[in-house]
Description:
Elements: H1 5-12, E1 23-25, E2 33-34, E3 40-50, H2 61-78, E4 82-92, H3 97-113, E5 117-125, E6 129-139, E7 154-158, H4 163-171, H5 180-187, H6 193-199, E8 203-208, H7 213-224, E9 227-231, H8 239-248, H9 253-256, E10 263-267, H10 269-280, E11 286-293, E12 297-302, E13 305-308, H11 309-312
Parallel strand pairs: 4-5, 9-12
Antiparallel strand pairs: 1-2, 3-6, 4-6, 7-10, 7-11, 8-10, 9-11, 12-13
Helix pairs in contact: 2-3, 2-6, 4-5
The protein binds adenosine-5'-diphosphate and magnesium ion (MG).
The site of adenosine-5'-diphosphate (ADP) has 13 residues, from strand 4 and strand 5.
Amino acid sequence: MALSEFSIIERYFTPKGYQHSQVQLGVGDDCAILSMTENSEWVVTVDTMVEGVHFFPNTQPEFLAHKLVAVNLSDLSSMGARPVALTLALTLPAVDENWLQRFSERLFCLTDRFEVDLIGGDTTSGPLTLTLQALGLVPKGQALTRHRAKVGDFIYMTGFLGDAGLGLKVSQGFCVENSAPVLERFHCPEPRVAVGSMILPYANACIDISDGLLSDLGHVLQRSRVGANIFWEQIPLSPQVRRYIDETQDWTMPLSSGDDYELCFTVSPENQQNLERCLSEQSVRFTQIGVIDAGEGLFLTKAGVKESIAATGFKHFR
Ligand code: ADP
Ligand code: MG
């Protein structure tokens, strides 16, 4: 006989304990209880993944759990918040214990690794839909936002650009040499949790790259009422993406493809040295890719020629 909703929760989604002192009550009552904190603020986000819309049918449950946690922690990180708690709303077409086992195992593997507590959720039947809410803490008044980029700021990003986009193409049948790393980047993005809270004292604005650099940096420019110039030759590209561009000439792919979940942030010239010193203690790669300027919109300088990227970049893709 299929498990009841209550047995599913008890067997697969009840943590053995909680890592954060703010969790007064977790899974098992009508609500969870979190205690208030005096010098910090709660930062809250939620993301939904629907089968057939956000992921292909029959995607491995490990990948689904990984991406669900990663995209939410990435949002917290882009605000400079430290993750504390998660709630999980699961809509399942059927009770598949193998799926539940694999999904929940990866989920708790990530909650352990990123020190965040699953404190509640909801379990219902229907088309496969995964919703995760994440709560984090930042020092009061210090959360990083999209609207404080300043003229003269340097623009940085973590990691490589376009690996996830290439991973998506590979998962759809495109052939590349040594495809495992880009598939991994597509299915199992790494949220830049430590970076987010580390750059908090120095960065002016921050966003995570979920929809593509052009689109996401575009949000920062719009909200901050500034422009930017990106230097093509400085964009960090993996060997796989470089080879892809050499073979296809599709050089805009890394700029406009999403799912990398790297952080893109701006820092004033005065804070640049401190920020770089801090980040170089981390194992994560970071690169300066451009500058904020007083103009309007986003420009790309490629081989010495500066062009509006809204006109050139998207044209290839739309
Ligand atoms: P109620 O009917 O009062 O909403 P539920 O029966 O839905 O309560 O849930 C019982 C407990 O299990 C609650 O603490 C709820 O937060 C938790 N819960 C339900 N589904 C999940 C899930 N998928 N993951 C984690 N906790 C869950
Ligand atoms: Mg309920």
